[in-house]
Amino acid sequence: MTKTVARRANAAPTDPREHARAIAEAVDYAWHSRYGGSRIEVPMSVVAALALVAREAEDPDQLAALGETMERLGHEGFGLLVQRLWCEFAMLRPDLNPRTKHLWSWTDEEPDETVLHAVQAVGQAAIRKGVLARFGPDGWGETDLLGMLLQTMKSHGGRKGIGQFLTPESVTLLLGRMVAPDEGARILEPCAGTGTMLLGAAQAMRENGLDPTRCEWWANDIDPLASALCAVNLHLWGLGWRVVVGCGDGLLDQWMHEALEHRQMAIDEVQRAWRMARQIAAVRYVLDLPTPEGALERHMRKARPKPPPPPPPAPPPSSTFDAEAAYRQGRLF
Ligand SMILES: C[S@@+](CC[C@H](N)C(=O)[O-])C[C@H]1O[C@@H](n2cnc3c(N)ncnc32)[C@H](O)[C@@H]1O
After folding, report:
1. Where are the domains of the chain?
2. Alphabetically, which GO biological process terms does the record hold (predicted)?
3. What is the mean pLDDT of each run of 10 residues along the chain (333 residues)?
4. Considering only CA atoms, which residue is closest to atom 26 of ligand 1?
5. 246: β partners
6. Which of 69, 125, 179, 318 has the smallest number of Cβ neighbours within 10 A?
7. Residue 316's pLDDT is what?
8. Does 192 sit in the ligand 1 pocket, CB within 6 Å?
9. Contact yes or no for 194/229 (Cβ under 8 A)
10. What is residue 179's predicted lDDT score, i.e. its pLDDT?
11. Ligand 1 probe mutation, 194, 222, 252, 258, most atoms within 8 A of CB
């Protein structure tokens, strides 16, 4: 592990919930002190994108190096990076696109300079607070960082006294143990918030040696932001592909029909896009067209820390005269 990661990991709270709180407060402060505005889905999408990168990383050292590069990106480069990360997630999980769209649609709108500066400040704050190191390869699965962030930002650090309040993980785990779902179960949460109840159920299953990806997970919330964060969470927590996330009135069952329909439409759309991308790639290959460096790649290359220079070559011996050997042979006196 590099020195930077080790230093950050030491400085971060050991309790995952406390760590999530520290990240959420830093992000809230960074967003509001840079005049980020009222669209709190923007900072949340930045943190969610970073969490998704951390989740997919296999090598902590590689992740730390990527974190260093990301921290050095300018506001334009950081904006492009967040946009790319969401594009890749949209291809990876098209089934969640109808919900996650609420988080990434701002990246399609050519955000202005002020928003981009605030986005960069949020990303840097989250990275400095150790979002990558804590929530890297094995860190997920025990806490709801996005839920903590939603609560913090909706009440702006509790100062406005309004907000959305979610059940803490210690309680959801207890409830999960009481329900103790079996593999093959259909688990339904019509007012899911960011999905913490489902996390508790999945944790309880894992404790019993069961695989939560063998269940069907249905989640819904009337708030599009909570529902979008829930969709990301279900991926971060590794609940698999049998997942349906809706956004509607949980007192009616219409949300279930709509969620299934929108899910299928999104999958079909991405399949069409893949077919077209494959055709374009085949034509480029046949015509042997070079691939120009993209704007994001240019920003990343410039931000990447330079490798240390190679050590200077050993100086040539100042003299070939071996005084010690000459002394031993008694030639000096
Ligand atoms: C107190 S939070 C609890 C969330 C989650 N069940 C938990 O325990 O952490 C209540 C959630 O219900 C959602 N909600 C309220 N009325 C709803 C409705 N009619 N349909 C769906 N969701 C609703 C709110 O947006 C909020 O996210």
Report:
1. 3-157+166-274
2. methylation
3. 49 84 96 87 97 88 91 95 96 96 94 94 95 72 90 74 80 95 97 97 96 97 98 95 97 96 96 92 88 90 86 72 67 53
4. 193
5. 220
6. 318
7. 67
8. yes
9. yes
10. 94
11. 222
Contacts of 232 (CB under 8 A, 6+ apart): 48, 51, 52, 96, 100, 103, 146
Q: What's the gap in Å between 193 CA and the centre of ligand 1?
A: 5
**Cα 144 from Cα 229, distance rounded (Å):** 10
Residue nearest to atom 27 of ligand 1 (CA): 193
Q: How many Å lie between the centroid of ligand 1 and the Cα of residue 308?
A: 52
Angle at 287 between CA 281 and CA 292, to 5 degrees: 65
Q: Could you tell me if 60 and 135 are in contact, meaning their C-beta atoms sit under 8 angstroms apart? A: no
Residue 23 CA to residue 6 CA, distance in Å, equals 17
The first and second tokens of residue 21, run together, are 């709180």
pLDDT at 164: 75
Please work out whether the CB of residue 221 comes within 6 Å of at least one atom of ligand 1: yes
**In this structure, how many other beta carbons lie within 10 angstroms of the beta carbon of residue 46?**
29
Shortest-distance atom of ligand 1 to CA 166: 9
Q: Which atom of ligand 1 is nearest to the CA of 193?
A: 27
Degrees to nearest 5, angle at CA 96 with 227 and 200: 55
Tokens 């109840």 label which residue?
A: 197
Q: Is ligand 1 within 6 A of the CB of residue 226?
A: yes
